[in-house]
Amino acid sequence: MDNTFRRAHRLLKTDEYSSVFHLRNARSNQLFQVYARPNGLTHARLGLVVGKKVAKRANRRNYIKRTVREWFRLHRHDLPPMDFVVRSRQAYYRGEYHEAVKALAALFAKLARCRDSSSS
Q1: Close Cβ partners of 28 (under 8 Å, ≥ 6 residues apart)
Q2: Pairing relation of β-strands 82-88 and 45-49?
Q3: From first to last of its 120 residues, what are the pLDDT tens digits of the chain?
Q4: Could you give the 3-state DSSP secondary structure of residue 56?
Q5: Alpha-carbon distance 31 to 2, whole Å?
Q6: Per the confidence metrics, is the pTM higher than 0.90?
Q7: Which residues pair with 37 in a beta bridge?
Q8: What SS3 class is residue 37?
Q9: Which residues have CB under 8 Å from 118's CB, separation 6+?
Q10: Which residues contact 95 (CB under 8 A, 6 or more apart)?
Q11: What's the distance, CA 10 to chain centroid?
Q12: What is the distance between the alpha carbons of residues 38 and 25, in angstroms, rounded to a whole number?
């Protein structure tokens, strides 16, 4: 199974982000807010937003983005073909990594369930 995170699996352009935000299909918890939109492709794509209000230091923002990308890379085969934008709402540290991953997985599961129930 190919677990790489290639350019085809990323949201790159402002229009791609805007279309996901415009649909307003989102779920959130204390750490993250995840927006989703069907993309018409055969695979899921990921976009990330980690603002300076969440973490002032670049190394902290980069750590958050790195952990979300890694989770997506390992689980993208299980996700529906949608565009996802993950917005960080609160910074977390290395000791809180497992809780953050659980919170992220729960949000993606909620969005997948909503998609399954709406398509039926």
Answers
A1: 34, 89, 107
A2: parallel
A3: 677 778 888 999 999 999 988 988 889 999 999 999 998 899 999 999 999 999 999 999 999 999 999 999 999 888 889 999 999 999 999 999 999 999 999 998 888 776 654 554
A4: coil
A5: 29
A6: no
A7: 83
A8: strand
A9: none
A10: none
A11: 10
A12: 10
Q: How far is CA 9 from the centre of its chain?
A: 11
Look at the alpha carbons of 64, 42, 115, 110 in this order and tell me if their dihedral is positive or negative: negative
Q: Hey, how many other C-beta atoms are within 10 angstroms of the C-beta on 7?
A: 7
Q: Which amino acid is residue 93, in one-letter code?
A: Y
**Is 111 buried (19+), middle (13-18) or exposed (0-12) by CB count in 10 A?**
buried
- C-alpha–C-alpha distance, residues 61 and 38, integer Å: 27
Q: Which residues pair with 82 in a beta bridge?
A: 38
Question: CB count, 10 Å around CB of 42?
Answer: 7
- The tokens of 57 are what? 């230091």
Give burial (CB, 10 Å; 0-12/13-18/19+) of 94: exposed
Residue 106: helix, strand or coil by DSSP? Answer: helix
